């Protein structure tokens, strides 16, 4: 007779949790589905008491699911409050009904809270800065099981760390952030066949280097598991729409696309990059991309392993000094490279090796920044490899608020047991 699998959590911890959770919350397979902040408090306090880590996957500790924390409140004064489980798309819809707009994180399907802790470098960040610069307050449960309201005035050090410092400082239950007066943007995707990849990349490299802060752009080289390879470019322009069309003509006039859906849109309607949601990625930050580096990226995308290679333009307001500093590192970088492959062991290893090879070939263009590996579906890139000084400062914050180290294993790629990232 086969042995029964071991319990996901110690029986006494599971019993204690069930006795402390609110009526709307539940525990199943090591996952606490919280109905309110009090459930998150109970989960982290008991995890510390029983010495159980708050992990990222059921079976390897306790997981806290905050999807039900779905409050959305939009103030006519130009700010919003959202629960820890709210995605950008829902906030954008609520803001639009009040004549306002969101800056948005990297994708509309990402949690607002994850963009705050990851930095939030979205398609409009070159104009308006990262999401982390627009935060008014964060409410989170730290590793000691304390629900804290964190602002620049009341808790300046934790306010610094939770914005762009990754998920290791606590489980976010609510965020308050500033909105925009509802602008429209000239934005969308251009697509080409794989045969145009070299010409598109060569033109994009020189065209994007001269773009003003009103423009944001990303280039994708896609090799899917099935179907033809392809090339796509996202473009977003926050200035006068006629000017944006003229700027974009510098790319599409040189290499006419097969598909062009760049039109006037609301900021919340910018769409999602065609990157596998279950992929695992490695990434690299650059100061510039020389012609030889572009050739290396193209070769990486053409290898037999299905993958997506993304080249994202940074700079603009991303690199400006914010009014209130945060833990978000490497804001001076000009470009981000993401290589996204499958989640299998061989595919992960191939993705890792691909980025290490690119880093070695690009050499000085990396600015000495480390590559980041094994990152999950959250597409933020700047918070993955903190500088030594920022790492030490974050470690001191974690030591002060997480005495039992229940969140110590929480990585920047997935957060402290918060399910549903991306």
From TrEMBL:
Keywords: FAD, Flavoprotein, Oxidoreductase. One of its GO terms (molecular function) is FAD binding. Residues 1-182 form the FAD-binding PCMH-type domain. Its cofactor is FAD. The keyword Flavoprotein applies. InterPro entries: FAD-bd_PCMH, FAD-bd_PCMH-like_sf, FAD-bd_PCMH_sub2, FAD-linked_Oxidoreductase, Oxid_FAD_bind_N. Belongs to the oxygen-dependent FAD-linked oxidoreductase family. This is FAD binding domain-containing protein. It comes from Geodermatophilus tzadiensis. The lineage of its organism: Bacteria, Bacillati, Actinomycetota, Actinomycetes, Geodermatophilales.
């Amino acid at each position: 007779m086969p042995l029964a699998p071991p319990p996901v959590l110690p029986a006494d911890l599971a019993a204690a949790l069930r006795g402390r959770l609110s009526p709307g919350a539940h525990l199943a397979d090591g996952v606490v589905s919280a109905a309110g902040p009090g459930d998150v408090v109970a989960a982290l306090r008991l995890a510390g008491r029983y010495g159980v880590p708050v992990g990222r996957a059921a079976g390897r500790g306790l997981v806290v699911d905050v999807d039900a924390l779905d409050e959305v409140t939009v103030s006519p004064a130009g700010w919003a409050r959202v629960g820890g489980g709210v995605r950008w798309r829902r906030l954008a819809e609520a803001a639009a009904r009040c004549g306002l707009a969101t800056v948005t994180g990297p994708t509309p399907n990402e949690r607002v809270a994850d963009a705050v802790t990851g930095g939030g470098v979205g398609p409009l960040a070159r104009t308006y800065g990262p999401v982390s610069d627009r935060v008014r307050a964060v409410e989170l449960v730290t590793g000691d099981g304390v629900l804290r309201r964190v602002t620049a005035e009341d808790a300046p050090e934790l306010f610094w760390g939770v914005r762009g410092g990754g998920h290791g400082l606590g489980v976010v239950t609510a965020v308050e952030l500033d909105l925009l007066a509802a602008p429209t943007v000239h934005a969308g995707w251009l697509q080409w066949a794989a045969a145009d990849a070299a010409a598109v990349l060569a033109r994009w490299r020189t065209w994007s280097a001269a773009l003003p802060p009103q423009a944001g752009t990303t280039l994708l080289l896609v090799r899917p598991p099935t179907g033809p390879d392809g090339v796509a470019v996202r473009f977003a322009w926050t200035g006068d729409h006629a000017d944006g069309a003229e700027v974009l003509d510098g790319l599409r006039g040189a290499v006419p696309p097969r598909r062009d859906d760049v039109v006037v849109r609301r900021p919340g309607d910018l769409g999602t990059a065609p990157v596998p949601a279950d992929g695992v990625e490695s990434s690299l930050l650059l100061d510039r991309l020389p012609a030889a580096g572009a050739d290396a990226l193209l070769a990486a995308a053409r290898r037999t392993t299905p993958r997506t290679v993304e080249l994202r333009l940074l700079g603009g307001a991303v690199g400006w000094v914010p009014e209130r500093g945060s833990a978000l590192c490497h804001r001076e970088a000009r470009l981000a490279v993401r290589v996204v492959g499958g989640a299998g062991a061989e595919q992960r290893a191939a993705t890792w090796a691909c980025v290490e090879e690119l880093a070695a070939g690009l050499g000085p263009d990396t600015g000495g920044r480390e590559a980041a590996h094994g990152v999950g579906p959250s597409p933020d890139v700047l918070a993955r490899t903190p500088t030594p000084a920022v790492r030490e400062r974050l470690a001191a914050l974690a030591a002060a608020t997480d005495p039992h180290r229940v969140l110590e294993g929480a990585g920047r790629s997935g957060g402290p047991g918060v399910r549903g990232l991306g």
